[in-house]
Amino acid sequence: MNLALQPGPDLHEPLHPDLVGAQRPTGLRPEIALSWERSARNGVERDGVDVARGPGSDRPSRLLRAAEPVIQRLAQRLEGEPLVIILADAEARVVVRRAGREDVRDWCDRLLIVPGSRLAEEVIGTNAVGCAVEERRPFVVAGGEHYRENLRLFSARAVPVRHPVSGVIKGALALACRTEDGSVLMLPLVEEAAARIEARLGDDTTRQERLLLDRFLQTTRRSAAAVVCLNRDLLISNTLAGPLVSPADQPFLWDWASRVLAARDEYCGELRLAGDVVVQARCTTVREEEVVAGILIEMRPHSATLRCAGRTVRPHRPAGPSDDSPVPGRSAAAERVRRELAAVAQARRPILISGEPGTGKAFLARHLHERDGATGSVTVLETGQCRDDPRAWFERLRAGLAVQGTLVLRQIDELPVELASRAVGLVERVDGRMVRVIATARLADSDDGMTRLRDCFPARLQLPPLRQRAEDVADIARVLVRDLADRSPPPRLEPATLQNFMGQVWPGNVRELRAVLSSALLRSARRDIAIEHLPPEYRAAPIKHRLTSLQRVEREALLNALDDSGGNKQAAAELLGIARSTLYRKIRILGIDGRCLSG
């Protein structure tokens, strides 16, 4: 074969973490240098040799069906050559490995490049398969360009494999060899084979997808409405739906439709879309006998009426979030918070903002100060510090109440009960025209000695936890990315990522979501955020299916009982008045795991 592949530079010195992002290693192609930076940031060790292994989680059966004949023909063509064919799934995990010679197979075994091995960039550093999946484009890594030193004699060319309809990355196909055996023929060979696999993926369109497409075509021929057909992996829309929805809205639409159709095959009602657009929607399940293909949604302008199951649905327009709203989201809970926020903002009376840690209490306190347009500064007092030095803390409290602006008492739950009465006297005498007093607390009500202090705050605002408004997660995530990103337009959150977010439990609420997105932005290196850019523990959503409203209430009751009992399942079952076996069954069905518990 024509040996024309040249090894990369032989770099032995590890990349110091302090240089990541500030100084790229010299002597490498720009795309390789950027991958080295990501590898160092992910903590990959240059002298490491282990490779993570596992069965995978995205069930690549369709990818295998499409790829097996193509790989078989390619393997026959390359028999006797010092090459190895590698097919990896969307997580860069090896699904198939076919070597042209026995010595090459044994060599790959020693490098732990075997079925089940995960070759993701964040696991083993710069390599062709991991980089092709990470960057979603063909990638070549030769010799010393590998981040790990034990791979310096290895070279590969990899091409991502996409679903021809959805464009979603399904995996990557690579040809690899010892660096001295490299050939310029490898790239056209692997590109041709990847294209054949993608074509076979298109031919392997399932019965469900055909049913969904047929229903979409039937509906668009007879309807003047905006029409959307979707399932978990596919979204089809007509021209009228184009201005209303985008692929990024798929997770929200699927979540909403799955909930409203939980116990029926048809639903008519209002649907709030992005940009404060409210439409009348008719939502139906697409099925043939027992085969459920997906969901069809017909949307009409807000002024229109819909005929649904023999009845006329007349719209009413609720208030919606504006572009500058501090409470993004489309749920009833988000709408309630916006209404209450507008109400308390107009009064100068003391305000109590309650909610779990991370729900955004301090953020809304600052928003209320800025919304007033009042002069003066924001003074924040941590009530937990009162226990250490009560005299100094009360002096700061008196000083804050005497200065024009806003005084925020954070976590008044932590104020010692014996000192609460002193705080009550000071807060009750405050001049609301000069200073606005805002307190935050984890619980809105209590039977302990803090009740009287809470009564000093006639205006109340309670923030729901993120797990109770999963339909808002996509909107909140997009706002957070916009705030965190250092460029415009900000990176896009891929639909699969948003779908994953809507299935997470988020025990740390918005604060936790913000931290995950901040980490993902670093991993994505300014590109769109995919699932593989999330921290590993967030790549598989623990809730595998959407819950009905009743199931969500039941799930919340179980979480509260588990929290009150410190995670003791027997005690939680007794609190709920159910058998322990019933508790275990519901924990499994409702997608509850250990991260939901605060105890």
From TrEMBL:
Short name of any one Pfam family annotated for the protein: AAA_lid_14
Chain segments carrying region Disordered: 1-24, 312-333
Domain Sigma-54 factor interaction: 327-522
Keywords, alphabetical: ATP-binding, Nucleotide-binding, Transcription, Transcription regulation
Domain of life (superkingdom): Bacteria
InterPro entries, per the entry: AAA_lid_NorR, HTH_Fis, Sigma_54_int, Sigma_54_int_dom_CS
UniProt xrefs under PROSITE patterns: SIGMA54_INTERACT_3 (PS00688), SIGMA54_INTERACT_4 (PS50045)
PANTHER family membership: C4-DICARBOXYLATE TRANSPORT TRANSCRIPTIONAL REGULATORY PROTEIN DCTD, TRANSCRIPTIONAL REGULATORY PROTEIN
Protein name: Sigma-54-dependent Fis family transcriptional regulator
Species of origin: Pseudonocardia oceani
